[in-house]
Write a structure and sequence with these properties.
Elements lengths: L1 E6 L5 H10 L3 E6 L22 E4 L2 E4 L1 H13 L10 H33 L5 H30 L13 H17 L5 H11 L2 H10 L6
Length: 219
């Protein structure tokens, strides 16, 4: 049976949602972040990087969300949640499967880092660092994030989904960056993204996965 090594408040929630959509039996081994929001050292016993998610099954260990998703679809998907191979929707789904972590998440993570630096700095350096990080954020990070948000809103403009007329792996992979950005910025000016979140949150499989993994919040 598949075991998902799941860290609270992490991107591995998407893997649980995928398994629920496919109706695959699995186990969840939960890990809690330390006080400094790092993964606990126990995860290094599963994979050398000590990060989540990690999938284990039949002596095999698979790390990285995209690789885990491809493993599950290849082994259990039977064509589900992936558009017809070779179609435009198929290649759009492939794009978003890799784009979600490769391009969408880095600027959102960088924004978080820029906020953390002043908070963890010595007291007398906080004002200078806060001003400096805010300038980097305004000049570099936010314009890049706005570019990505426009891409997302445009991508789901026709059908409400990222790759074709119905839910696919593209939507599951994109759910984390879309939710993270919603927490940061809201979607008052991007109604299609706002509607996308309402629809995925209403899916029974999404709710079951959230129940298995536990509630999460964004820093």
């Amino acid at each position: 049976m598949i075991t998902i090594h799941h860290l609270n408040n992490s991107r591995s929630q998407r893997v649980l949602w995928l398994l629920e959509e496919l109706g695959i039996a699995y186990e969840v081994k939960r890990y809690e972040r330390t006080k400094d929001m790092q993964a606990p050292k126990e995860l290094k016993q599963i994979h050398p990087l000590g990060k989540s998610p990690v999938l284990t099954e039949d002596g095999r260990t698979v790390a990285e969300t995209g690789a885990i998703v491809e493993y599950i679809l290849a082994r259990y998907g039977d064509g589900r949640l992936m558009p017809t191979e070779g179609s435009d929707d198929y290649w759009n789904a492939r794009h978003f499967l890799h784009y979600a972590e490769g391009s969408a998440m880095p600027p959102l993570f960088l924004m978080l880092v820029l906020e953390m630096i002043p908070r963890r700095a010595p007291f007398f350096t906080k004002p200078i660092l806060k001003a400096s990080m805010a300038k980097v954020d305004a000049m570099l990070v936010r314009p890049q994030i706005a570019l990505h948000l426009d891409h997302w809103e445009d991508a789901i403009g026709k059908s409400g989904w990222f790759a074709g007329p119905e839910l696919s792996i593209a939507d599951i992979m994109m759910s984390f960056p879309v939710e993270a950005a919603a927490h940061r910025f809201g979607y008052d000016d991007r109604p299609k993204l706002r509607d996308f979140l309402l629809r995925i949150h209403d899916r029974p499989a999404y709710r079951r996965g959230l129940k298995r993994g536990g509630p999460y919040t964004y820093a």
